[in-house]
Write a structure and sequence with these properties.
Layout lengths: L1 H9 L6 E3 L3 H14 L4 E3 L13 E3 L6 H8 L8 E6 L3 H8 L3 E9 L7 E10 L1
Parallel strand pairs: 1-2, 3-4
Antiparallel strand pairs: 4-6, 5-6
């Protein structure tokens, strides 16, 4: 939602799809969208139940390990898709575990909110 709000002012041509399985959270997102006059598509469903489609950027926070995130996201990616995942202090262990089943490029950036955490930017995801 934050990106949709920022883009509404800076890049209004961008579109956003927010996927959230919790109905209460979807209601909140719809209220924020209405009050802030933005129009992201809000899908009230589990990510594994939405039709496969390709997204330019995928982000998720505190949802699953990298390996599980890759399994969830793979049907929504192509060679140009970028994934952005905030991860905690165990981020390197998650990267190492994911490399057992997946090929990918990763860039790691320090978190501005937690000293041991990182923001991972993933590109070129494919099954290993």
């Amino acid at each position: 939602m934050v990106l949709a709000l920022m883009a509404a002012e800076m890049r209004p041509e961008l579109t956003f799809t927010l996927v959230e399985s919790d109905q209460r959270k979807c209601a909140f997102l719809r209220s924020v969208a209405r009050l802030c006059d933005v129009a992201p598509e809000i899908v009230s469903e589990r990510v594994d139940r939405i039709p496969a489609q390709v997204f330019d950027v995928i982000s998720a926070r505190a949802l699953a390990s990298l390996e599980k995130l890759f399994s969830m996201c793979h049907g929504f990616t192509n060679a140009n898709t970028i994934m952005v995942f905030p991860k905690g202090a165990e981020y390197q262990n998650e990267i190492d575990a994911a490399r057992n089943a997946w090929n990918f490029e990763v860039q790691s950036y320090p978190s501005a909110t937690e000293a041991d955490a990182r923001i991972l930017v993933i590109r070129n995801l494919s099954r290993g």
